Amino acid sequence: MELEQQILTENDCYKIGRTIKPQGVMVHSTGVAQPDPEVFIGRWNKPDVAKCVHAFVGRERVIQTLPWTMRGWHAGTGTTGRSANNTHISFECCEPAGHTYEGGTMIGYDAEANRPYFEEIYQNAVQLTAMLCREFGLNPLEPGVVICHAEGYELGVASNHGDVLQWWPRHGVTMDQFRQDVARAMTDGDEEDDMTQERFDELMDNYLARRTRLEAGDWSAPARAWAEAQGIVAGDGDGGFRYRSFATREETVQMLYQLKGK
Ligand SMILES: [Zn+2]
Question: How far apart are CA 233 and CA 224, in angstroms?
Answer without folding.
Answer: 8
